[in-house]
Amino acid sequence: MSAKKILIIEDEPDIVELIAYNLEREGYRVISANSGETGLAKVISEHPDLILLDIMLPGMNGLDVCRRLKSHDTTRHIPVIMLTARDEDADIVTGLELGADDYITKPFSPRVLLARARTVFRRREESQTGDRQLITVGEITIDPGRHQVTAGGISVDLTHTEFSLLHVLGRRPSWVFSRSQLIDKLREGQYVITDRAIDVQVANLRRKLGACGHYIQTIRGVGYRMREDL
User: Fold this and answer.
1) pTM beyond 0.70
2) Are 127 and 160 in contact, with CB atoms under 8 Å apart?
3) pLDDT, tens only, 8-42
């Protein structure tokens, strides 16, 4: 099996060098770009398996790059981990709403970066080779084998994280999951992520499911569940 290819879109050479060194030690192929425009061009020419995307880029910023990536059929499937020097919720929430799979706040440990990259790849492999049984809850159908969702008979385009969240809820309808349980299911407990990030993903899911969004119910003070009593 060929090595996974990771594209770093980051304008600080020292950070690129540090990330590349640690990724290459783990056997990944690494390419880089120092601007959003160059990064988008390399996505098209290099077809990376994962993108590490800095938010604060010269010219086109990382959020605009993410927006472009997630709006095109040929690139929206590529997982994106945002790199940001800010710890403000607004940046993180905006990136997740655009379809980013994860975020890391600078400064970060190379071990944390590697763990998150491995988690992204493992989750993708599990979705492709794991449980392929169709799940139907009311008017929502989840096809893990094809990574497809229909709601009311209409195909729904979800990011990998949104799909994983819906899959977790759909496998156990009526079961109430706390936010911390959902974090563990999605992130496998390898690092801390805010409850706010889970709330953003749920809001995205409801919006994309349209008239079927009400199947995901908020349990005040606890978390979420997939309703089947509608």
Assistant:
1) no
2) yes
3) 999 999 999 999 999 999 999 999 999 999 999 99
Segments making up each domain of the chain, as ranges: 5-126, 131-226
Residues 59-85 have a mean pLDDT of: 90
Third-level CATH fold of 131-226 = Arc Repressor Mutant, subunit A (1.10.10)
Q: Which tokens hold the place of 209?
A: 């499911």
CB 8 within 8 A of CB 30: yes
Share of the chain above pLDDT 90, in %: 46
Domain 5-126: which CATH class?
alpha beta
What are residue 178's DSSP bridge partners? 223
